[in-house]
Hints:
Largest sheet: 8 strands, mixed
Helix content: 40-55%
Bound molecules: adenosine-5'-triphosphate, magnesium ion
CATH architecture: 3-Layer(aba) Sandwich
Order of helices and strands: HHHHHEHEHHEEHHEHEHEE
Amino acid sequence: MERIQAAIAKARAERQGTKDGAAPHPVLGQAVRHDITANWEALPRHALDPKTAERNRIVETGKGSESAAFDLMRTRTLKMMLENGWKRLAITSPTAGCGKSTVALNLGLSLTRRNDVSAILIEADMRRPSLADKLGIRRNYHIAEVLRGAESFADNACRIADRFAVATNEKAVPNSSDLLQAPQVGDVLRQIEATYAPTLTLFDMPPLLVNDDTIGFLSHVDCAMLVAAAEHTSIKEIDECEREIASHTNVLGVVLNKCKFSSGSYGYDYY
Ligand SMILES: Nc1ncnc2c1ncn2[C@@H]1O[C@H](COP(=O)(O)OP(=O)(O)OP(=O)(O)O)[C@@H](O)[C@H]1O
Ligand SMILES: [Mg+2]
């Protein structure tokens, strides 16, 4: 725990010290262009196959009750984040399989259906990457190498909507906790934001109670959303996670996923 706390304090201090004027990253700095529109358009476009999307519960269109549930989540998320000046959102859960990655993708798609909003989703679950599979992406992208400072974001991300970029990881990364707490991560994130100026950046995180990856990374985000699974996650786990998140960053809210009986027919409730 001491190691994590030291890393968090260091990352937070670096972030506050260089909030507005990050020095160009030695690798990424060379690739940074200042025309935001051109930077977005240079990212390859990945066309979602409707069957893959349906199988993985990804709601592409803005129609139907499934979209309505995510649009409600989008509106609340945007309102709260913009009002507070928050730009980075971690999506986590107490334990595995609660629906983090599904929520992250659908929230990103819903956000960017609004043409005044752009978003980047970064796969930060280095132990069990799943976004490429869920999206049917066959190219081998390595966001881990981007966070390491070894490769450019532009070579490791694609757009699944005009202004929604997803940076995935081809395979599991050993020592993911060390990577997520490495000193260059803050600079890399600032460079990505400077290059694409996204309204929000979302991070698909590992579960909070399973390892220290998420806790160690929370100093890089402005807030976190907790995804709980109905009939699986206990109140005690939600409570424990809320307290843990609150000691590192802001708690945006809890999504109760996989509800059989919810106000939205897609099985989500948000509070
Ligand atoms: N609302 C829902 N109703 C039913 N099934 C769902 C719902 N949301 C997600 N799922 C399914 O639950 C499984 C786990 O979802 P997902 O991969 O998004 O969870 P995760 O929290 O990211 O898991 P991991 O901890 O392994 O990263 C997937 O098969 C997904 O399709
Ligand atoms: Mg996941």
